[in-house]
Amino acid sequence: MKAFAPEVYRDRIRRVVDELRRQRMAGAVIGAGPELAYLTGSWVSSHERLTALCLSAEGAARLVVPATDAGGIDVAGVEIVGWRDGDDAHAMAASALGEGAQRGPVGLGSSLTADHVLRLQELLPETTLAARALAGVFAVKDALEIEQIGAAADAIDAVHARVPGLLRPGRTEEEVALDIERLILSGHDAVDFVIVGSGPNGANPHHSRSGRVLREGDPVVVDIGGSFGAGYHSDCTRTYQVAGPADPEFTQAYAVLQRAQQAAVEAAAPGMTAGALDAVARRIIAEAGYGDYFTHRTGHGLGLSLHEEPFIVAGSDVELREGMVFSIEPGIYLPERWGMRIEDIVVLEGSGARRLNRAPRGLR
After folding, report:
1. Taking the model in full, what pTM does it have?
2. Contact criterion met (CB below 8 Å) for 195 and 273
3. Element (H, E) at 198
């Protein structure tokens, strides 16, 4: 189902074609997945069969798709080219690019699987990453996208509002996670993931859930997300405490984490690099003696993909631009003891970062 009017997708394709020309690329082949959904509104899935939007720098746009799926697809300005079992779909995709594809590099989209990539490379003189032309367009969100991501953020905030009531001594992480899944589905179309990491399990940033029983005073990392509307995602982490006495060092470290996250939100601005923003949070945590325990990047872009550009990571020279949407989520993880993370999705505006998540960030 398309979320936006046909002219929105026509404009997105036009901007990508303009970028192909600017990058001196002959065209691009985009497989089924978030990039295709961004450009056409279609989440068609043809499994192992090739579905590919073929964009020529000369302006032609053709969607090569199994005939079994072609009837349900209607994209303004895009010619539908159906293929049947026995046809050479990869040759049809190469042909759909036009003669220009023989005179310059063709970008291959990130959703294409290796079998499709290898076959297309046999047919095209030169290939490169489609991200050269797509990344900048894909990463800067328009007002319609920001509205959807904001609505998804509101929906996940509503789930976090219910979490404290689920964290009772004697319950297992698995029981809590199942309750959270039901809450996510009350405001989203699908559950993307649920992390409930209590006590020492919270020291694993990507712990999922387990049969561990919650105890009095346990810190609990709850990182949750779902998909919403046209496929836009929510993603928000809060750290909670089960009723009971807390580890004094945990409380002190949490104050450091709050300062680091707040400083990064306040520092974010168009024109700075993603690496410089990562350094803001990392410096505060390191100065407090926890630098070795902040073991992941500070954030990632979010939209039709759960993780996309820009990646807020040390050393990145990607320039942050107005309209980018990304997480700011520093964490501290002490092995075999506890972990903590605070994650908000922000949209970068001319005046700085605006939080889309409004769930309380203090310990609850």
Report:
1. 0.95
2. no
3. strand 190-198
Q: Which helix or strand (DSSP H or E) is residue 7 part of?
A: helix 6-22
What's the CA gap between 12 and 35, in Å, rounded?
A: 11
Average pLDDT over the chain reads 96
Output the CA–CA distances (angstroms, integers) from residue 349 to 45, 149, 316, in the order listed: 35, 15, 20
Both tokens of 323, joined, read 């309209």
Total number of residues shown for the chain = 364
The CATH superfamily holding the domain 6-137 is: Creatinase/prolidase N-terminal domain (3.40.350.10)
The CA angle 122-124-127, to the nearest 5 degrees, is: 100
Say how far apart CA 43 and CA 32 lie, in whole Å. Answer: 7
Distance CA 61, CA 106 (A): 14
286 Cβ partners below 8 Å, 6+ apart? 294
CATH architecture group of domain 143-355: Alpha-Beta Complex (3.90)
Q: Does pLDDT of 353 surpass 90?
A: yes
Q: What is the rounded distance in angstroms from the CA atom of residue 251 to the CA atom of residue 241? A: 10
- Residue spans of beta strands (DSSP E) within 91-188: 106-108, 127-129
Name the maximum alpha-carbon separation found in the chain: 71
Mean pLDDT of 99-121: 95
Q: How confident is the model at residue 76 (pLDDT cuts 50, 70, 90)?
A: confident
Rounded to an integer, what distance in angstroms lies between the CA atom of residue 215 and that of residue 182?
23
Task: Please state the domain extents for the chain.
Answer: 6-137, 143-355
- Do 96 and 140 contact (CB within 8 A), yes or no? no
